[in-house]
Amino acid sequence: MSDFLLRDAAPFSPETWAKIDGMVVEVLKSSLVGRRFVDMVGPLGWGVEIAPLTGFDKIDGAAVAKDALYIPLKELSAEVVIKAKQLAISAATPFALDLGAVAMAAVTLAKEEDKLVVLGLLDAGKKNTVAMGDWDVFMNPFKAVVAATAKLRTTGFDGPYALVLSPAKYAQLASSMQQGRKELDMVEKVLGGGILQCPIMPDDKAMVVSPKGWNFDMVVGQDAVTAYIGNEGLDHRLRIFETLALRVKLAGSICVLA
């Protein structure tokens, strides 16, 4: 790993690299939404640049795979600078190196991945919609989700289903209650696959998906890793990067509430 990431060129101890890597993993695990419901293929390595995308159809009554298209894996990255003074302070005092900047860069990378994956699914499902309705009215969220799951099921996409929505829309749903009935609980029971809040989802949309690997998945070449770019004077610049592609094979498995 250190050969192409140039980590040996950095004036960091193995312990410091371990802390940097640990911070990146911790932030990505807590921040990423797409990976919580989208199947992942890989990681396959940085050298993998394309992935086959196979669609499906029916010909003469038989289900058949279409010829594969090859799509490129996209590189996503975020950079961070570690100040030499911070290194000196951590070496000469009881205070450990503060990796808040690394955490900020990892959050940025997580947002970029979810833009590619979550918003990519939202775009793929834009032709398969149901009315969202006014979520300030009790039972309207439940009715919209039931309509979406019914549409998916009648077109051959079974549950359990997952609902992806913005934090603001989730707050509306979570606060909806009447005569002791929580609408959130009712919606969760219909879905069976959970409700996920995603900060990059628009407030005026949500989506219900059948998250099976044969419907859609994501291919990861290089999973998130930190490389040493070089020094800038006495300071040091790092890049956290990954390569991936979203593969939507059956767009009908995504129903957008709008």
What order do the helices and strands come in, and which of them pair?
Blueprint: H1 2-5, H2 14-31, E1 39-41, E2 50-53, E3 56-59, E4 62-65, E5 69-72, E6 74-82, H3 84-92, H4 100-124, E7 129-130, H5 140-154, E8 161-165, H6 167-174, E9 177-178, E10 181-182, H7 183-191, E11 192-197, E12 206-209, E13 216-220, E14 225-232, E15 235-248, E16 254-257
Parallel strand pairs: 1-13, 7-16, 8-11
Antiparallel strand pairs: 2-5, 3-4, 6-15, 8-12, 9-10, 12-16, 13-15, 14-15
Describe this structure in words.
The chain is of the alpha+beta class. The protein has two domains: 147 residues, Major capsid protein gp5 fold (2-Layer Sandwich); 86 residues, hypothetical protein PF0899 fold, CATH 3.30.2320.10. Helix content is 34%, strand content 31%. The chain contains seven helices and 16 strands. Strands 1, 6, 13, 14 and 15 form a five-stranded mixed beta sheet that branches. The chain has a five-stranded mixed beta sheet with strand order 7-16-12-8-11. It starts with a helix and ends with a strand. The relative contact order is 0.24.
